[in-house]
Design goal:
Two copies of one chain form a homodimer. Chain A is of the alpha/beta class. Chain A contains seven helices and nine strands. In chain A, about 40% of the residues lie in helices and about 25% in strands.
Chain lengths: ~240, ~240
């Protein structure tokens, strides 16, 4: 892992940019004790510099966690595949025309998840070697990636999933294999995330401890108190 | 209000039994400062001495709230009406026979709610005159009573509702008129509370701030951390 830059933010958090081969990432830490780690990812591969992701990451860092994110293939500044660009164009056209979008989402999001998981695991290998990170490891964010990662990697000890965006069929099937405690956060009127599909997914999760939090409003309307609830969820399972 | 007995519990909480005319009640307080009040009620009129209700009440009292409950008409030691006794017998018979129970619940729970609301308001009048209670007032528990009470009485500032038991049709309609912040706690596999009906009720609540918390398991399986989440909900709205 190469640290390419670092700066101290005004709330005292240390923000470091790193690369791992082709993978660019960011690590936020506070305090001097080795800390549990939270991996923060964004629905459908939005860039890791997206302000809402950064705000969530800094919130968790201010609660004493080491927090890391990467731009997986096709995310942020990384080159997008021709197939993904085509799928995005198809998606815009279909949405404008009011046509069904499930198959297009499948062709866009399925490969994004497939390609992201090995790189997140590579990042996790490297992060857990840092002296400032003690584990255990939590996951926060993009539901589809979180399911695949928690099922594939036994180092993930708790998952906070945000029910935004499309979950590919294969990943929905894997939800039954999840065993880690999870907090599933749903916006009741999320325009991009049909409510019944999210409730069915919550029902399918195999985890014995799973909690659904739902609030009214659209995709961007999550109330601020849910950040605090999220911190307490991680505190229960990562401390 | 006549205080009929009092005792200091081992966690320092003062538990006082009172009567208000025919209405028996219990008040739990801790500390010496005037405190906000939480009214705690039980689904379908179970007795106020029921251990789970007492545990919830003491939990809130230990967080600095004054907590009160009453036995409304037909609850606890108070005489049951012949109609309610008949409805309970009909209910047992119908459940055993696997017959529909909606109409029987309607005839049992409808009058229980109708009769309870004026007595809870009488109790609220008296409780708010005590120097140890400053308001504002929260409500916790029985969903059907909580809806009716929050819609009828502007002194209720926040409602934590447990989706257990049958909500009469008239009360379900009133849910749209609710405006106070609410936390709606659902057991995902509650044998006595059809999930879809609870989700429809959550959807119907008129309150701008409404949060659903759902956890797997039956009616009695609510995880302990939900008590803490409940306290933080009240802290946001009653402090």
């Amino acid at each position: 892992m190469d640290i390419t830059s670092e700066r101290r933010l005004d709330d005292g958090i240390l923000e470091r940019e790193f690369t791992l081969g082709e993978i660019p990432g960011t690590l936020w830490t506070s305090g001097s004790e080795p800390a549990p780690l939270i991996l923060v990812a964004h629905n459908n591969g939005l860039p890791r510099r997206e302000p809402r992701l950064v705000a969530r990451a800094r919130h968790s860092a201010s609660h004493g966690y080491a927090v890391a994110t990467i731009d997986a293939p096709g995310c942020g500044d990384r080159p997008r595949s021709a197939a993904a660009e085509q799928a995005r164009a198809d998606l815009r056209r279909a949405m404008k025309a009011g046509e069904p979008v499930d198959e297009i989402f499948e062709s866009l999001v399925g490969p994004l998840v497939d390609d992201a998981v090995p790189e997140w695991r590579t990042a996790l290998d490297a992060l857990l070697e840092l002296p400032e990170i003690s584990g255990p490891v939590g996951y926060s964010g993009w539901t589809a990636l979180g399911i695949r990662l928690a099922v594939a990697d036994p180092r993930i000890a708790a998952a906070g999933l945000f029910a935004g965006g499309y979950v590919p069929r294969a990943v929905r099937e894997e939800a039954r294999q999840m065993t880690v405690p999870l907090l599933f956060l749903l916006q009741w009127d999320d325009e991009g995330n049909p409510r019944q599909r999210a409730l069915d997914l919550f029902d399918a999760f195999g985890s014995k401890e799973k909690t659904l939090h739902a609030n009214p409003g659209g995709h961007l309307g999550t109330p601020a108190f849910e950040s605090e609830d999220g911190s307490r969820f991680y505190d229960r399972h990562l401390r």
